[in-house]
Amino acid sequence: RYAISCTPCHGAQGAGDGAVVARGFPRPPPIAGADAARSLRAIATNLGGAHPFDDRIAPRDRWAIARFVEAGLP
C-alpha cells in the first residue's frame, strides 16, 4: 500500500526523494519513523500541500500505511 500510494512522492525509504520529486514536484518532508497518528493525519489531509488522500485510500489501508511508516519502512 505504501509503495502504491506514497513512494511516488516520498520514495521507498521515506526520504522525500520519489520519482515525482525528480521531475520537479515539491519535495515532501521525510517520514521514516513518524508516529502513526501523525501519519494518519498526513494521509487524510496531506499536510505537504498536495491533494488529500482520504477519499482515495480506505481507512484500513491508511492504518496499514501509518503502521508501516511508524515501524521504520523497509
Structure overview:
With 74 residues, this protein is mainly α. 46% of the residues lie in helices and 0% in strands. It has helices at residues 2-5, 7-10, 19-22, 36-45, 59-70. It is globular, with a radius of gyration of 11 Å. The protein starts with a helix and ends with a helix. The mean pLDDT is 87.
**Count of separate DSSP helical elements:** 5
Sheet having the most strands = none
What ranges have pLDDT less than 50 throughout 5 or more consecutive residues? none
Distance N to C terminus: 13 Å
Shape: globular
The value of Rg in angstroms is 11 Å
Q: What is the subunit arrangement here?
A: single chain
Mean pLDDT: 87
Alpha-beta content class: mainly alpha
Query: What is the number of beta strands?
Result: 0
The sequence of SSEs as H and E is: HHHHH
Helices and strands in order:
Elements: H1 2-5, H2 7-10, H3 19-22, H4 36-45, H5 59-70
Helix pairs in contact: 4-5
What is shown here, in short?
The protein is mainly α and 74 residues long. The chain is built from 5 helices and no strands.
Keywords:
5 helices
